[in-house]
Amino acid sequence: MKNIKLTFVLLLIVGVSFAQKYQRLAYIDMDYILQNIPKYIEAQNALNDKVAKWRKTLDKEARAIEILKTDLVNEKAILTQELINEREEDILVKQEALRKLESLYFGTDGDMYILRKKLIQPIQDQVYNAVQTIASRKKYDFVFDKSSEFIMLYSNKKHDISSLVLKLIKIDIKQQDKAEKLAEKKKLLSNNEPSERQKQIAAKKEAIKQKKLSEREKKLKDIEEKRKQRLEARDKKRKLLQEKREALKKAREEKKKAAEEEAKKQAEEKN
Hints:
Elements: H1 2-20, E1 25-28, H2 30-35, H3 38-75, H4 81-106, H5 111-119, H6 121-138, E2 142-145, H7 162-189, H8 196-270
Parallel strand pairs: 1-2
């Protein structure tokens, strides 16, 4: 229904525009363009690999929590209420840590957003810049994306400028590669030390980076330390409970033995 409305609005806009004057239209296939840019494929693969690793970490933590829940259900009958509460609290702490870790990876400003912006955003900007350049040269009034939400009920191939956009991007990539190689050569030939201002900026960026890493490590360390303390306390309580059970069992056995000896003694005296 949403697509139908968007198509209707698009056709209405185009119809009104054509009623006013002759308009030049073109379209691109964004998917086709991106899939033919090697750097985009490399960036997408790198992002997918990272996401897979993050998902694996989250799944591992989630499975560990499920095991704790299962163990609690199975052992609930032999645990005191205090130990049950302790385990339930430990599970809640782990679940909260898992939610924070998931937000750290996939949140609004998480690692995935930062990495996507770093790897893929420059390539997408390159595509948009190429489209604007071609539209300006060819004097197009509208350029649509065939792979977007707007449904193209019909598209004449002669209006497809995807190949032109891709060609312009490849030229731009070659120019960038040449510029990077030239800059690298200049850097190798030049032994000049970076300016004091550049050193200060670099040092400031590094300090901010190290601060963020330190804060992240501290959070994870605090979570792990709390978990360790809870596990130690739980093990200690288990040990005390086991000692009490053994002491109670021993006392019962001694009492039983004493009763048997007393009964035996009374029987002998009676005989």
